[in-house]
Design goal:
seven-stranded parallel beta sheet; binds nicotinamide-adenine-dinucleotide
């Protein structure tokens, strides 16, 4: 029943979003990929997904740091594929700095991509989902949507707010066959994490090895990074009919971080 569903995954040319896109593609969903890069820049990634896909794959360039880009993205996907059944708000960026050094433009960019763009995609996609009485919305928050760490004020504020948005929309559409959930990963070794290593080394005055062991994995009792596929498997389960009663939740995949 789910095979021909159409899934839009924002920020799906790398890391967690790419893992979700691949999982959905192998399940037979029609997959709408997105990033801010041009189609030519991500052609290899598109090819990688197409190679394993059982159904169509489309690429939609949209820079979600721009106001209203999320709404335009949803409209473009609906124009090409007719509808959106599954929406994964995954695009995100990180800025690491003490609050007094965090530039207002960085605060704005982090908030816009993680939170405002999710508001835009949800409010645009949900109209159609409500008409069909079926939908799945998955917001990729973070363990930092539930607890804080130093030097990530914009990210942590946005990820907490994304959970609030998740709960509210879940209540609004609970009788419409639409579920809305957040997934909260601990540290997953993706380009996003690799990029912040240098900033973390600077603010903590540590080597790369020390940052990994004493900052990133210090709070993750398993002492291992979570794999992107662990997140994509959960996303896949949330899209199944057996997950129809799971809504308004924050599913934590954090190696035990928040058990303390
Ligand atoms: P990543 O850097 O590997 O991938 C980010 C994706 O978002 C890329 O496809 C990138 O092109 C896209 N993107 C970035 N800016 C964009 C913009 N302006 N417009 C459109 N697309 C844009 O990152 P990741 O680690 O896979 O993170 C994915 C999500 O998971 C993020 O929301 C992140 O906050 C969240 N998360 C990651 C971790 C982790 O440890 N990696 C932990 C918790 C939550």
């Amino acid at each position: 029943m789910l095979a021909n569903k159409i899934a839009l995954i924002t920020g799906s040319t790398s890391g967690i979003g790419l893992a979700i896109a691949k999982e959905f593609a192998t399940k037979g969903y029609i997959v709408a990929l997105n990033s801010f890069e041009s189609e030519a820049q991500v052609s290899e990634v598109i090819f990688e997904v197409e190679a394993i896909a059982k159904n169509s794959v489309g690429y939609f360039c949209a820079d979600l740091s721009k106001t209203n880009a999320g709404a335009e993205l949803v409209k473009a996907v609906i124009k090409k594929f007719g509808q959106i059944d599954i929406l994964v708000n995954n695009a995100g960026v990180q800025k690491v700095a003490p609050i007094e050094e965090l530039k207002p433009s960085d605060w704005q960019a982090v908030r816009q991509i993680s939170l405002d763009a999710s508001f835009d995609t949800i409010r645009t996609a949900i109209v159609d989902m409500k008409k069909r009485n079926w939908g799945r919305i998955i917001n990729i928050s973070s363990v930092h949507g539930l607890v804080a760490s130093k030097y990530k004020s914009a990210y942590i504020a946005a990820k907490h707010a994304l959970i609030g948005l998740t709960k509210t929309v879940a209540l609004e559409v609970a009788e419409k066959g639409i579920t809305v959930n957040a997934i909260c990963p601990g540290y997953v070794l993706t380009p996003l994490v690799q990029k912040q290593l240098k900033d973390q080394m600077k603010v903590h005055n540590m080597s790369e090895k020390q940052v990994i062991e004493q900052v990133m994995l210090a709070n993750q009792p398993t002492k291992q990074f979570v794999k992107p596929q662990e997140i994509s498997s959960m996303a896949s389960y949330l899209c199944s009919d057996m997950a129809r009663s799971i809504t308004g939740t924050s599913i934590v995949i954090d190696g035990g971080w928040t058990a303390r």
